Amino acid sequence: MRRVECDIINSDNNFQATDVCRDGLEAYEKIKSTKYDGVVLDVNMPRMDGLQLLEKLQKESIKANVVMVSTLTSKDADTTIMALELGAIDFVTKPNNIIEAKGQEFKNSLLSVLSAALRMRRSTPALNSCNSRTVAAAKPAKPIKRLKPTGKNKLVALACSTGGPKALQSVIPYLPKNLNAPIVLVQHMPAGFTKSMAVRRMRWTLMIS
Fold it and tell me: pTM here?
């Protein structure tokens, strides 16, 4: 899989696979000392799995744009959702065999997710680079014109794609108990992972209800 993924990454002129690690511990040492545009992690890795690695990176405040590769098994799906909550940007469904791994579908999926991760990386520094002088010089935003409600029916809608699970973790647990409105959540995600995500969101809902 490492060879296949490297071949796919190197087939696109926008990317280059610069390092390959045999296990999670080796990956941790690399990420700790080298800054990468993106990191592709497998859920299952020797010595330190993907979840343990993300927890360690988070604990030590080591930033990395991580894309997870996971199978559709229930166990891996749960781990993947937890990985997204720990900061992974997105994930790619792992093929069942080497023939599928070398197929066009997996190639397109991996390159698409990596492209999204790269776009996120390019947009984040612009936010982090603002200093007090820049902010002070910025023109104040115009006040939002709020329309008066025309009826009693209310609906809260949340729509997410890349980075959604992590963002939702920062929103859903803090919704007011007396919201008095139904919530619709749309998360772009393969079907095999939606159940695990829904169960975890339900736990958060029970925490605030």
Answer: 0.61
Mean pLDDT by 10 residues, the chain (209 residues): 90 90 91 89 85 90 86 68 80 83 88 80 44 38 56 78 70 79 78 67 51
Distances (CA, A) of 95 to 27, 70, 99, 100, 119: 22, 9, 8, 5, 25
Q: Are 70 and 43 in contact (CB under 8 A)?
A: yes
Give the ranges where the chain is alpha helix by DSSP (H): 2-10, 24-33, 50-59, 74-85, 98-101, 104-128, 132-137, 164-169, 191-208
Give the burial string for 27-42 (b: 16+ CB within 10 Å, else e): bbebbeeeeeebbbbb
Q: What is the DSSP letter of 102?
A: T
